[in-house]
Design goal:
single chain, alpha+beta, Nucleotidyltransferase, domain 5, 4 strands
Length: 121
């Protein structure tokens, strides 16, 4: 049986960096530029979203959206597409009052490429 060992930490980091190229969200604002009030978790209405994905062959994903101060969590099960993610976020946020929809932070995953189309969150 052939056994492959993982590369060095630097090699692994370089491989991950290469896999992320070209996956930026159009017109994205750097996380470093988000309002300081988001980082301090001092006011309500600032959200973070990401997908939890199981096996590579599984086409579904669990979309997890968490409010940073209260840790209220909203979950949606759907496919991995950007369109599905956008529709799920719209359904979740459209039920909330405007005061609870201040900012939304997402990573550069391909499921987030349409997030800019979400009405002002």
């Amino acid at each position: 049986m052939a056994v492959s060992s993982p590369g060095t930490e630097k090699e692994d980091e370089e491989e991950w960096t290469q896999s992320q190229k070209g996956r930026e969200i159009p017109e994205a604002i750097s996380i470093d530029l988000r309002p300081s009030v988001v980082a301090t978790r001092s006011t309500i209405g600032h959200w973070e979203t990401d997908n939890v994905i199981g096996r590579q062959t599984d086409e579904s994903a669990l979309s997890v959206t968490v409010e940073r101060l209260t840790r209220v969590t909203m979950l949606t099960l759907g496919d991995r597409t950007a369109k599905e993610k956008l529709e799920g976020l719209f359904r979740r946020f459209s039920r909330l009052p405007e005061s609870l929809r201040q900012t939304l932070t997402a990573d550069n995953g391909k499921e987030n490429t349409l997030i800019k189309k979400l009405p002002e969150v």
